Amino acid sequence: MTTDLQSAARTALACLDLTSLNDADTAADIEALCRRAQTPHGNVAAVCVWPRFVAQARETLPASIKVAAVANFPDGALDLQRALGDIAEIALAGGDEVDVVLPYRTLLADQSSDVAEFLSEVRFASRPLTLKVIIEAGELVTTDRIAQATRLALASGADFVKTSTGKSRVGATPAAAAAMLKEIKASGLSAAGFKASGGVRSVADAAGYIAQTRAALGDAALNPQRLRFGASGLLTDIESVLAGADSVATNSTY
Ligand SMILES: O=C[C@H](O)COP(=O)(O)O
């Protein structure tokens, strides 16, 4: 019998961006990450790494597992040249996806046209790769700012709007997800996706975000084209649940 938690674990696995973004990451760490990306229960959607590891990950993984890398990360400065440099490095190394940090401090300073221009240049430079815009919801704090950042990301042509870098004190939260999903739905963009990231460690957490995505965007959005989980520590719990054992995660925001 498949339980609700196992069903959530299957969706979370298929939608997982298995992440390693430690400052001290080595080639051996990325080798281990790529090995973990292929499980007896199925493969993750993507690995997410620093640009310098894209070529290694792309050579190691089958084409069905995407290679994502971060740009303008994690501080989200208004530094277009750095972002474009990161994107060029990712594209040249054979990466499939770019996760770029929106200049959230610029937005908090009410300079939204500078943010829009930055995102427009990033979108232009990153095609044809998949683009995820990290709004760093934990720093934007209010629902209004989170909604505004989501609208700017969608208006630029981003494929996904992503909650967090995982480097801020506050990562993904149900409240941020609700505000973002509301804007995605309101945009009418039927291909735009949502990525929950930062502190997502348990299948119970993932199940909550899956339920929110289903409520906002429908069952058709519960696939890697519309939903991702960016997480360094979620796979252990997914594997435990899919092996028929109890959840091993101890924290949950739900
Ligand atoms: O992009 C994904 C995040 O960096 C992962 O955050 P995490 O290490 O809290 O799972």
From TrEMBL:
The keyword Lyase applies. SMART domains: DeoC. GO terms for molecular function: deoxyribose-phosphate aldolase activity. The keyword Lyase applies. Gene3D superfamilies: Aldolase class I. InterPro entries: Aldolase_TIM, DeoC, DeoC/FbaB/LacD_aldolase. Pathway: Carbohydrate degradation; 2-deoxy-D-ribose 1-phosphate degradation; D-glyceraldehyde 3-phosphate and acetaldehyde from 2-deoxy-alpha-D-ribose 1-phosphate: step 2/2. It comes from the Bacteria. SUPFAM superfamilies: Aldolase (SSF51569). Keywords: Lyase, Schiff base. Its EC number is 4.1.2.4. Pfam families: DeoC (PF01791). It catalyses: 2-deoxy-D-ribose 5-phosphate = D-glyceraldehyde 3-phosphate + acetaldehyde. Belongs to the DeoC/FbaB aldolase family. DeoC type 2 subfamily. This is Deoxyribose-phosphate aldolase. It comes from Pelomonas dachongensis. The gene is deoC.
